[in-house]
């Protein structure tokens, strides 16, 4: 058997692209005017909150750019209005992720349920953004997206708690890696957002693939983020934690994950085979999702020979 240390990360990622038949020529076209209009719309909404970011608006503007870039890649097939609604959702993803461990995040859900003021003035508008999802997605999907947002806040706090990050990972805790990843992954939201109700009014045409798209987005992200996180010395990501519970080398875990992603891809394609509109939406999402990771500088995959914007 090949020595795990000798497994080439570029080969692992390349095998993923081959198994899902990723086609660079089908990358979504990020139209400059469309992107600028979406950024302006997001900035306008954020500015209406009258919240000081402490950097004369520069911090919030940077978050808006990150959110819009993600949406333009992952959801190029959505209407402008649906993109705006989910860009604001993604805005809070970056805002919370950048402030991981903030005590105001730990109190967010309790204060919301009690109807009390939020410690963080920006978070005081999170529920408004979540409520806006119902205009563009089926109520079942919008509910799942809102629940995923609450889980994300808790999961982000959890995975950054000093007592949790310092604890020994026991091999017998086989369910821990997936549990922690599900808490902080926003996978249900990423999956549901693929199918807005205006173009996909029949929820039965796609609801059976939502769990697989959820898992696909989490696993594929973890594979494509691994290189960057290794360079940053991160030891609490899904790959590393799964490595500790399975007693397998992280690269061996990555090889297994690639096969799991390929299986998910095949199942989704088969399930949507007789639903051409849903199948096209899934393919647009999958291709844009992969392109986003390969092309964005933050993932540093150009250092392994992949394209970079």
UniProtKB/TrEMBL annotation:
Source species of the chain: Mycena venus
UniProt GO MF annotations: carbon-oxygen lyase activity, acting on phosphates
Presence of keyword Glycoprotein: no
Regions annotated as coiled coil: none
Sequence similarity: Belongs to the trichodiene synthase family.
Pfam families: TRI5
InterPro entries noted in UniProt: Isoprenoid_synthase_dom_sf (IPR008949), Trichodiene_synth (IPR024652)
Protein name: Terpene synthase
Alphabetically ordered keywords of this record: Lyase
């Amino acid at each position: 058997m090949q020595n795990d240390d000798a497994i080439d990360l570029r080969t692992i990622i390349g095998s993923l692209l081959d198994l899902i038949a990723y086609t660079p020529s089908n990358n979504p076209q990020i139209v400059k005017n469309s992107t600028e209009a979406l950024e302006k719309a997001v900035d306008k909404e954020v500015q209406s909150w009258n919240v000081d970011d402490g950097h004369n608006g520069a911090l919030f503007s940077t978050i808006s750019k990150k959110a819009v870039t993600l949406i333009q890649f992952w959801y190029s097939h959505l209407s402008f209005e649906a993109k705006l609604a989910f860009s604001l959702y993604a805005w809070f993803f970056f805002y919370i992720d950048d402030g991981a461990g903030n005590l105001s995040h730990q109190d967010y859900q309790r204060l919301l349920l009690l109807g009390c003021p939020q410690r963080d003035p920006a978070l005081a508008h999170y529920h408004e953004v979540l409520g806006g999802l119902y205009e563009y997605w089926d109520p079942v999907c919008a509910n799942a997206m809102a629940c995923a947002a609450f889980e994300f806040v808790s999961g982000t706090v959890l995975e950054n708690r000093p007592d949790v990050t310092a604890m020994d990972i026991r091999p017998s805790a086989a369910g821990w890696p997936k549990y922690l990843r599900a808490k902080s992954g926003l996978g249900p939201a990423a999956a549901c957002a693929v199918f807005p109700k205006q173009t996909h009014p029949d929820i039965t045409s796609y609801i059976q693939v939502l769990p697989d798209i959820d898992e696909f987005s989490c696993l594929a992200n973890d594979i494509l983020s691994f290189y960057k996180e290794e360079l940053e010395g991160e030891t609490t990501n899904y790959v590393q934690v799964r490595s500790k519970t399975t007693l397998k080398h992280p690269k061996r875990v990555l090889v297994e994950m690639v096969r799991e992603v390929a299986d998910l891809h095949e199942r989704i394609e088969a399930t949507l085979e007789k639903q051409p509109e849903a199948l096209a939406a899934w393919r647009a999402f999958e291709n844009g999702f992969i392109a986003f990771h390969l092309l964005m500088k933050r993932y540093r995959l150009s250092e392994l020979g992949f394209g970079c914007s």
